[in-house]
């Protein structure tokens, strides 16, 4: 859950989010080194009384350096970024499937291969919140087992939506007439919140997502 004044990302609750967090930290590390080196170099030139040659027309060595350096930096960032990107699309051997359908302005959930009833999830009104979070609580939360690879199929009944759960590193567009899928794996039990991340009309801000990740034993009790 995000908090007021928070500067960094949410605590990762999935493998995908952990990879995204690692890539983010790696990029910040590279940027800090580049900025420090350039700033130190420019400061030393200024303090040493270096003057710019206004009549310099070409400098092949300098041109090679400022062309190759960004190329090498971007190449070093490409590997971790692609690894994080493709890990979220790997749904080759899921243990279960969750189908999510966006509607104006609520979410519908189905378990195609499990004997669980499908349900719709509407935002809870203020008078029913109790001690819950405003604009994040729902009347029917969706239950998933921890430590289980889940394939999430996302679509829409009307306009474009986007099903997003930041702490799980998941954000998938819900497009009418199209099935998009993303893999989800959470090794921790708990409650994860998200929202619609695509402007879909006047009540776009009131389409929360609430997932309850429980132990496998508790999830099996629901099946029985």
TrEMBL record:
Its main location: mitochondrion. It is found in: Mitochondrion inner membrane. It is a multi-pass membrane protein. Residues 93-224 form the Cytochrome oxidase subunit II copper A binding domain. GO terms for biological process: ATP synthesis coupled electron transport. GO terms for cellular component: mitochondrial inner membrane. The keyword Membrane applies. Keywords: Copper, Electron transport, Magnesium, Membrane, Metal-binding, Mitochondrion, Mitochondrion inner membrane, Respiratory chain, Translocase, Transmembrane, Transmembrane helix, Transport. Binds a copper A center. It comes from the Eukaryota. Pfam families: COX2 (PF00116), COX2_TM (PF02790). The chain crosses the membrane at residues 26-52, 64-86. It catalyses: 4 Fe(II)-[cytochrome c] + O2 + 8 H(+)(in) = 4 Fe(III)-[cytochrome c] + 2 H2O + 4 H(+)(out). Component of the cytochrome c oxidase (complex IV, CIV), a multisubunit enzyme composed of a catalytic core of 3 subunits and several supernumerary subunits. The complex exists as a monomer or a dimer and forms supercomplexes (SCs) in the inner mitochondrial membrane with ubiquinol-cytochrome c oxidoreductase (cytochrome b-c1 complex, complex III, CIII). This is Cytochrome c oxidase subunit 2. It comes from Bovicola caprae. The lineage of its organism: Eukaryota, Metazoa, Ecdysozoa, Arthropoda, Hexapoda.
